[in-house]
Amino acid sequence: MDESASGRILGKIGLAILAIALADLVFLNWWTLKNDKLVTGVVTALNSRQDKGDDKSPADSGQAQAVEPEPSPTSLPTPQTEKTSTVSDTLKTSTVVQNAQKEIFISLGSGSTKSNDWAELAGLQVTIDFSKYSGIDSMVFSGSVWVDGGNGRAWGELYNSDDKTLLIESRISSPTGTATLMTSGNIPVPAGAKTYKVYAKTDLTDYAAHVDNARIKITLK
């Protein structure tokens, strides 16, 4: 009797397990079928949207091309005209001044040198035609003479370029470091026209000799 009851119980348990397994199988089949339909619907919707997007893309690209601004032409730099300047050398011209006291001042200019031998000061020259002046009483040479730092002595003198001689009577000098007006003794007055240049020198070659505002003064009778 006990074995028969146990067999029945086991049989019922087996049937219950089989029923549950069948129910699970049916549920799984139903769930799979439902998901397949859902996936199919999603794929169809995506394909439909993609097709609509492809239909609009040509129009959109056309609009993009129409809206895109055309590049503006690059302006070329304006060529600049090169400016040229002409420099001309001008010769110094002497200034002749005559006052009421019958004194004629002929300006020669200014210059300097570091030579310890007589050297020409460039541009300081003048040609005087003495035949144009009647009754000359005297002629002297003057200028503000100084040497750099007051070292040594600065010298100045007239040179007659026609006779190629230095006029010792016209010699002036100064040992000071500041411009000091110096005047020579009387210079012999020649006949006709003569060209005079200013020469200068320094005792020490490291210190330049300066002759500023050099001039010749002619006094009439």
UniProtKB/TrEMBL annotation:
Spans through the membrane: 12-31
Basic and acidic residues bias: start-end ranges:
49-58
**Stretches the record annotates as Disordered:** 47-89
Please indicate which superkingdom the organism of origin belongs to: Bacteria
Recite the UniProt keywords alphabetically.
Answer: Membrane, Transmembrane, Transmembrane helix
Q: What is this protein called?
A: Uncharacterized protein
Highest classification ranks of the organism: Bacteria, Candidatus Curtissiibacteriota
